[in-house]
Amino acid sequence: MNQRELALEILYKTILEESYSNLLMRKELNKIEPQQRAFVTNLVNGVLRKYDFLQYQFTEESNRSTSLRVKLILCMALYERFMLHEKDYVVNNEYVELGKNKYEKSFINAILHKIKTLKEADEEYIRCCLPEWIYKLLSSQYSEEELEKIIEVYQQIPQICYRINRKKCSYDDLKDKDITIVNEDIFRSSQNLLGSEEYAKGYFYIQDLNSASLYKHLDLKEDDLLLDVCSAPGSKLFNCLDIVKEENAYANDLHENRVELIKKMAQKLGYEKINYLNCDGRKLKDIVDIKFDKILLDAPCSGLGVIGRKPDLKFHISPESLDELEKIQYELLAVCSKMLKKNGIILYATCTLNRKENGRLVSRFICENESYIIEDEDTIINGEGDCFYYAKIRKVN
Predict the structure, then answer these.
(1) Number of domains the chain is built from
(2) What angle do CA 108, 312, 265 make, to 5 degrees?
């Protein structure tokens, strides 16, 4: 199997079978040579990111009988030609060969020869490469300027950021890795460090720049009792352990395999005394008879803030799923807030931009629970990392 065939297979499963492209790539990339894997990753994510716009280029020529596979071949070819700037004859030859039969090969060849330039989209949501319902949702909740910034973030290719583990090293230990220090916690590198000896030893871990800043809003102290309600993969909890004693930290997740992932990473980073829980966060109060100083609730959400990093999310969420998530989020906040000590803080956070899952939900909670106040809240859309919302909520009575 060559690299373009593999990319086509991953895209097909992602869209038709609603699989997650990152999990597919993790599983499938070992079928090709290591030097080809970056190309496949770029091609898959690029087509997913631009899918609506690329498909628009041949809408008039295609019809109901045009299979998803053929449409994906054309999208891949157009992406490689116009976004990766591959030579026309290379693109035509490679992608015509992906047709299953003489008719498909002829159709693909004809379309690719016909399209000389990319045409501007008539509809704004197509130009922005979003499903119409997502575009309408965001445009109803954000100003034109904010929406433009969101679309810009969606279209960026995210940079890999690493979060230093001060338990094991300092920036001086990483001088030979060609690092660029972003701030006291985060650095980038021109090298891929995932195969490095330092990564294997737990000197650092991958974390988005904006995600890595959330722990600062908890006002942590060394002796705080800390609960991370939906902890996997654990990076935000590990941020907190720069300050909080690890034996005072409780990591919970609904899924047992995800708790094991946290444990595995914690051991690599050098944390041996974290307390682990494995239950539905909405039932934690019945299981854990502890009052906490600080609670981190990074709630399950629609993920509309991380479409730039995970473009396949566009194919996995629906308007109906947002309502289901909102119900779960509110129940989590209502239950976990009861586990706070007086004057304690619960940090409610999501990686979505849907205000119904964010500010409106928190406002409703405050209206219905007079013992709590919002001390700070913000939606982070800065172009430097994923988009996040957080609300710092204090229990005053």
Answers:
(1) 3
(2) 135
Same domain, 145 and 105: no
Nearest C-alpha neighbor of 159 from the set 179, 145, 184, 135: 179
Q: Read off the CATH number of the domain in which 148 is found.
A: 3.40.50.150
Q: For the chain, what is the radius of gyration of the CA atoms? A: 23
The verdict on pTM exceeding 0.85 is yes
Amino acid sitting at position 223? D
In the numeric block, the tokens 């946290």 are attached to: 262
CB contact set of 391 (below 8 Å; sequence gap of 6+): 347, 348, 349, 358, 359, 362, 374, 376, 377
387 annotated active-site: no
- Count the residues in the chain: 397
Residues 49 and 90 in one domain: yes
- The model's pLDDT over 52-110, given as tens digits with 9 standing for 90+, comes to 999 999 998 888 789 999 999 999 999 999 999 999 999 999 999 999 999 999 999 99
185, amino acid identity? D
What is the four-CA torsion angle of 11, 17, 22, 28, rounded to 10 degrees? -70
Q: Which of 161, 351, 367, 387 is catalytic?
A: 351
Residue-number span of the structural domain to which 173 is assigned: 159-207
